[in-house]
Amino acid sequence: MKQEMLINVSQPEECRIAIMEDGLLEELYVERTSQDNLVGNIYKGRIVNIEPSIQAAFVDFGVGRNGFLHISDVEPQYYRQGGLDPDKAFDLVDPSGRTAEAGSEEAQRAAKRRPRLGDRPRVKPPIQDILRRGDEVLVQVIKEGFGTKGPTLSTYISIPGRYLVLMPPLGRVGISKKIDDERDRRVLRDIMLDLKPPKGVGFVVRTAGTERTKSEMARDMAYLLRLWKSIVRRMRKYSAPIDIYQESDMIIRTIRDMFTEDVGRILIDEPAAYERAREFLELVMPKYAPRLQLYEGKEPLFHRYGLEEEIGKMYQRKVPLKGGGSIVIDQTEALVAIDVNSGSFRTEKSAEENAYQMNLIAAKEIARQLRLRDLGGVIVNDFIDMRKEKYRRGVEKALHDAMKRDRARTKILRTSPFGLVEMTRQRIRPSLRKSIFRDCPTCTGTGMVKTAESMAIEVMRTLQLSATRDDVTRLNITVHDEVATWINNRKRREITQFEDATHIQLHVVGKDSVSPEHLVFDAWDSTGRSIRFP
């Protein structure tokens, strides 16, 4: 399996990172400087409002709009019923900046008075008993805001490194659930215990930590501890609201999180970005630094690899599949609907086998499109109907397997009685389409506008209203050219009868530069004074 990571930063306003696998685009990440990217950032915020009805608090953390903090994301260290002071919950580092030694009395006392992540009570107290307006909290953005909704916050802080994730509230060592080999888990746990991480702070080994040496893990742990010390010092020095820690830029973040031994080459088309990435690799993964290359070709990087055409297909509603089938993706406010069509796809076997093979191909492509488009929320997949239970289970397994490489959390249900496979995918940011496109100002995002006939009928209804007005003597109607043509040709008799009955001078003006639903009435009285109409 040959993988390549292509990083396009030739346009300063936008950074694009594509991950290719055997020549096929498998993942795409796009970030623009004009858009706020807050996920992963840590802030010291202040509670500005408590809403007991939804068990949530709203937090001012200094970005212009308040964040949403639900009771489920409030760490036990903030529970007043336990007699805890939030300022004393970060005792890994003392005010002088020294890390508490693992076996010291100070560290033991800190560990005893600090609840661990696994010690959460089964029933959380009401949020109004935990937080008060004006309280300061250390929060991390876990989901970008959507529309009028502010960002979602959590007090469960996590800071990713290359091989480890520092989780202060955890208080112990954990292994990623994605590492399912018991031998690997045992080896990693032994390495972490040998490193003797400070008491009162937790680490989780990432999947990238598999088969790493003790020295590599120690270097990553030392880096995260230094970072955590600086965070605590900044937290204690400044009052809320203030930013405490900002995630790395997308290039460093993607290399850190996505680079594996399977990635044979990283190409970057901009010298300054190349230097930043090289410094990061030499610091964190010096063995792999030679795999980083500066692309100096005359042809743009993404054009060179045929990615621009592939990216253009991502915004289309219909996605063709191998063999003649297709999937149709419709994104709504509440959910994403995906329909599988067999088209001209045929096998030499029965119709049931034909449907099964088509669904297997569609399952893989659905998983790929969800990653590329970054679609989240509730997703309903309408596969081609299959009667045999073993075929249904086979399609479910194919979808599960295809979603394994997705970094977003997903949950897939079994096929419903209607033949639908429902699933959810973690929504962290707006989808790629929402980030790049805006709603059409003509159709306001519906994809449809009224016909010329419908607009003409609406004009005539409004004219009936003007017959009740004694002050209107002259009336101009401005509409789209097609509507004006329809009225002047199809409604000429009604217009003449209207003018004779009301003695109102009527003039219909058509413009090609306005939207199909454009409708403006300008009215005047007998003195030539403009009046409001209708």
Tell me the span between the first and last alpha carbons.
68 Å
Number of strands: 25
Mean pLDDT score, rounded? 83
Q: What's the number of structural domains?
A: 4
Task: State the CATH topology of the largest domain.
Answer: OB fold (Dihydrolipoamide Acetyltransferase, E2P)
Q: Residue ranges: pLDDT <50 for 5 or more in a row? A: 81-121
For the CA atoms, what is the radius of gyration? Answer: 30 Å
What does this structure look like?
- There is one protein chain.
- The chain has a six-stranded mixed beta sheet with strand order 16-17-18-19-21-20, covered by helices on one side.
- The chain is globular.
- The chain folds into four domains: 94 residues, 2-Layer Sandwich (Nucleotidyltransferase, domain 5); 204 residues, OB fold (Dihydrolipoamide Acetyltransferase, E2P) (Beta Barrel); 122 residues; 80 residues, Hypothetical Protein Ychn, Chain: A.
- 27% of the residues are buried.
- It contains 14 helices and 25 strands.
- Helix 9 packs parallel to helix 10 and helix 12 crosses helix 13.
- It starts with a strand and ends with a strand.
- With 534 residues, the protein is an alpha+beta fold.
- Helix content is 31%, strand content 25%.
